[in-house]
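[job 0412] stage=complex_fold ligand=adenine status=START
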Amino acid sequence: MGMRDLTKRDSKRDFRRSLLAWYDAHRRELPWRESSDSYRVWLSEIMLQQTRVAAVISHYREFLRRFPTVEKLARARETSVLTAWSGLGYYRRARMLHAAAKVVVRDHRGKFPSTSEGLRSLPGIGRYTAAAIASIAFGEPVAVVDGNVERVLQRASGKLLSREKLWASANDLLDRNRPGDFNQAMMELGAIVCTPRAPACLTCPVVGHCATRGELNGIAKAEPQKKREIHYALDYRGGKVFLVQRERSVSLMPGMWELPELVGANGDHTPLFTLRHAITVTNYTVKIQRVAAAHGVRGKWVAAERLARLPLTGLARKILRKADLL
Ligand code: ADE
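[job 0412] stage=complex_fold status=DONE, emitting structure tokens
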């Protein structure tokens, strides 16, 4: 396969070189790219978690003007943090941001942990955000996978990669000398060239390494999608959520935690909310109901603040986020 085969060393080297040269020449001038200060990088990555770049730009500068240092943010009242956040949505992120600032000041003398592992101990920082901050602010050679990077990797490889394979292949491709730039270049490529619809393959710096060249609009769509409806119980009381653990013997996500599924007549109430979730060839309509699990279901009550540290299924995470519990 020559240059296309990204398992070959020369091919990976060329991919990195081409991608970074493109990034150096074409990257967007974004305010958080003006410095690699960890406070600024952290703030931008939290803001970017569920919000588009355009909306973040205007809030980022104003937020920094009000809270120029992590100490100032830690000392601020929650209402003023929430006010500065207003318009960005998902206010739980702002509360976590404030909590993390306090931890950094109180437990780390105002310095952010400099490794992705250390960063993950802070509120509001998961695998993606920890890797983004560690690579951009501290040069740690760890790759990130967000929605944009995922699409680039799926198209380049022409394969439908599992979550773990995506992280492994991103780490394998990573430029270890410029990890922060490489990660941002991958995200940038996905955001402005390798777009979900009508990717701009003619201007893509790594088209020579791409197995699909935009022909497949996401490989999953090549197979006909099945439709299914599924119902879950969200039982939330006294700050705790009722969760069940998947059997350790199942092949898919063994031992992970999720909401109890409602089957049969149990699923007839008006849903609290509905969301869509796609797994390989099935599109699920997921309805969440504010009810108790069926009688006899074994599970445990988990305090909302502990949810982030529990191995949850992707769907459970999505539901709990939407319910503003995570
Ligand atoms: N999305 C999240 N973080 C980003 C970054 N640093 N650059 C571009 N897009 C991003």
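Residues 45, 48, 132, 184, 187-188, 191 surround adenine (CB under 6 Å).
[job 0412] exit 0
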